[in-house]
Amino acid sequence: MSLWLPPLAIAILASIAVLMLYLAQVIFVPLALGIILAFLLHPLVRLVERARVPRIPAVVTVVVLISAALTGVGVSVGNEFQTLARELRTDQAYMSNLEGKVADLRRFMSGGVMADLEAVLDRVGSNLEGPDADASGDRAILVQAEPESQFSSLVAAVSPLLGPLGTMALAIALVIFILISREDLRNRIISLFGRNHLSATTRAFDAAGRRIGRYLLMQLIINASYGFALGVVLLLVGVPYPLLWALLAALLRYVPYVGPFLGAIFPIGMSLVAFDGWSEPFLVIAFIVGLELFSNMVMEPVLFGQSVGISAVGLIIAAGFWTLLWGPVGLLIATPLTVCLVVLGQHVPQFRFFLDLLGDEQVLPPHASYYQRLLARDQQEAGDLAQTALRTSREPAHVCDSVLLPALLQTRRDRTQERISAEDEAYILQSTRFIVGELGRPQPGNHGGLLQRLGAVAAWGRPLSSADGGDSVAATVPPTSDNAASSQSRQPRFDIVACPSHHEVEELAIEMLAAAIGPTGHHVHALTTRTLPGEIVEVIRQRKPDAVFVAVIPPSGFLQASYLCRRLRKTFPELPIIVGYWGKKSRFDDVLVKLRSRGASFVTTSIGQTQKQISGMIESTPSANLHRPERSQVHASHSNY
């Protein structure tokens, strides 16, 4: 039994959860760090265990070695910074190089608007300063503080480090216990969610572990490669402390968005103060920009392959949220934490909103996006969606069944329930008819439209003569430049008379059917909703088609289709009748039985199925009956229904 909560209760619970995460960050931050580090170190522990090392020694060995390596790196970086700070204070060459570049910039910006603006700012600043304080006659009082003891200085220096050190110590302890008891912890969490949700919980654990582990591993490879390349180039250019800047750049890239920018500031700034010219700084800047482009456009798509499942906008929102909540540590672990939330939304229906807000999967299916854009009167984007679907599938029938036809079904349902107005329905139908035509319209520089280049297009609009039935239109495939001459002297292989049951949307569905079956050279003779049943009988008697097609788009039209099938079956006992009941499939078995009892030969549920049914009928029909110039008459009963 699923638990349903009203939106207000969900909002209250979410607010309480966020407040707890903020107030208890002393506990939750080490816990989050410990879980993420456990994901990162788990492959190393498994590798050591394969060497027949017991679980506890393997975990302790891996954690101690990694901690020692990180501590050594931190100490080395600190020493390098101390040495650099000492050189910047004592070496006058650095200051002279920096002053020379500032002077170059001033000369570059002098003159014109910038000089006038600088003069105005100097004048305003001098006015704001006011008279000199010494001229007022006031005497300054010198206050001398007592010197602090060595213990107080030590406490003042160590106090800011106690918080981060305590957090890291607790995180390392959690990593050790998580790696030692990982199976027991997994079973406890599964039991917490309930044994009835065993499959969903298992899939969620596997997906979260796979995504986070792959993300951390690939990020490590990319950052290490970036730092190595940057260090080599800085060494060749002659920038001081190249190893330090390469290491900082590699580490800062773990911070989303801000990290690469911060990592580039240090080597660029060092190149500005280390050289008296501009060629070396510009060379460093050019290489960093090129390396960033190569990393973002080549390495990340190749190594990451499939995304971690977070959209770019979702990652920005998540980074801002976790930074606001937990500070710099939240920014560092924002991506893994957001991956966990997205996986939770994938496998737990109550948290689906996480997937919708943060995930990179398409929230709306193509037909819903198409319908929504038409409701917003955005015909251009709706047409682009249809074009994209056609280029992807390269099957017109699939595009009609997956995009256009479901949108028309939604239009009928919403109009029946008065969710949309008659004007909205008319606009959607008119736009869809225009889009179907645009898909087949020849484009400049092409031999035909997109549907034509794929071999399918419907040409509509030629009224039949009064002898053919009055309000009908013909649908055939317009000849392309390659087969124009031969198509004019060739009769259609298979003649179909298509009838809508009661609504204009079925006329549009018949147009889609004609576009789907058009490339084989068959002929679809489409009637309109204004054609009466008696006129339909007369058209069939005159054209002698190979089959009749009746389109039904729920929620209505079944009664009209049943009546038409019964009348046509009594009038033409041998004529194949295909009914396309496109849409509502929940009661299809009942619909099939009833329509077959009324005289339908076949009942289909999609344009693609109808296309296959017609192709099967063609293959089972002797070719001599298909290619003759004059068709044999269909035996017709003249009895009225």
Overview of this structure, please?
- The chain has 641 residues and is mainly alpha-helical.
- The protein is 68% helix and 5% strand.
- It has helices at residues 7-23, 25-49, 55-90, 92-109, 112-129, 150-180, 182-193, 198-237, 242-252, 258-274, 279-304, 312-326, 328-332, 334-347, 352-358, 366-375, 379-393, 396-416, 422-439, 450-454, 484-488, 504-517, 533-543, 558-571, 588-598, 607-620, 623-626; strands at 459-463, 473-476, 495-500, 523-526, 547-552, 577-581, 602-604.
- Strand 5 (547-552), helix 24 (558-571) and strand 6 form a beta-alpha-beta unit.
Give a quick summary of the entry.
The protein is mainly alpha-helical and 641 residues long.
Q: How are the elements arranged and paired?
A:
Layout lengths: L6 H17 L1 H25 L5 H36 L1 H18 L2 H18 L20 H31 L1 H12 L4 H40 L4 H11 L5 H17 L4 H26 L7 H15 L1 H5 L1 H14 L4 H7 L7 H10 L3 H15 L2 H21 L5 H18 L10 H5 L4 E5 L9 E4 L7 H5 L6 E6 L3 H14 L5 E4 L6 H11 L3 E6 L5 H14 L5 E5 L6 H11 L3 E3 L2 H14 L2 H4 L15
